[in-house]
Amino acid sequence: MAITNRPLKVITWNVYEGAALLPLITRNQNAVRQRTVRVFRQFLATDFNARATSMSKIFQRLQPDIIGLQEMSIWTLTPPPGSRAPSVTYNFLTILQEKLRAAGLNYRVVARNNNYSDTLPGATGYTYGLSDFDVILARSDFSGTFSSIQQRNFNVNDTYIVGGRPFSLVLGWSSVNVTFAGGTFRIVNTHLPPIDPRIRTANTTELLRGPLNTSLPTLLMGFFNLNANNNTLNYRRFINAGFTDAWTANRRIPGNDCCRDTDLLNVSPRLTRRDALFLYRNGFTSNRIFRLGVSQRSRTPGALWPSRYAGLYATFQ
Prior knowledge:
Elements (H helix, E strand, L loop, with lengths): L7 E7 L14 H17 L2 H15 L3 E13 L9 E4 H11 L4 E15 L5 E13 L5 E9 L4 E5 L2 E5 L2 E9 L2 E9 L5 H13 L8 E6 L9 H8 L3 E2 H5 L25 E6 L4 E7 L18 E6 L1
Parallel strand pairs: 1-2, 10-11
Antiparallel strand pairs: 1-15, 2-3, 2-5, 4-5, 6-9, 7-8, 9-10, 11-13, 12-13, 14-15
Helix pairs in contact: 2-3, 4-5
GO molecular function: endonuclease activity; exonuclease activity
Organism: Marininema halotolerans
InterPro entries: Endo/exonu/phosph_ase_sf, Endo/exonuclease/phosphatase
């Protein structure tokens, strides 16, 4: 028996913060001031305004009920005290919602987990800021109701040295119970860390013991940094916990979604890993799934791919 009496249309997408942050990992304070400026300029060059327009066109075509987004960002540029130079804020959520409204769509925030945040002085005199968050959005006219909303950070996070001081790469998850089309189920959106597999293992344990510890039909989505193509440990842990991978259940062709160059200017997609997932259990079924942002027509007028990563669209019942 299907969980809902009509298909639930869902998208998950890591939108990419717009720049490679690894150059900031250094003990050298002078070096980090120079690199902070370069990182911010790369963010400007990857033009989230244009990328959000490309994404909104895809959303307009598919009309998803629920959207889970990772690496949503707020970048800030703050001049030194007493300067008449402008302050600027680039909020990915504000920008994307404006593009969606321009496309005739309205999506509201159902859940949001705020993750890492930091500011760094740059060699130009400006102070540069970046805050990361993930969101679950629902179409404004979606007929479902939401309850038991949870928004959490992981207890275990990786720590790096940035400009000679420790910086914790705090990530997390959001969950919500949804009653829709005759059924009630739980949706969980998450983003696992990119480098240390021990941190991912700890985060996987937190998910399994926390929001996934339910008898409700459950849909887990997000960007997991575990390359499911290689049947890695934490991927197997989800499968062994009873989850079905929507991609392998429906498709036999590779579903690679990662990773384009950090400047988003690859001539071809060049995707070699599978880190974005829809996982489901306790009665859900899925019979349709495909990738987003992989065709040349999805690029911006400036030739940028909409993200460093492909998104996923799937339907569930």
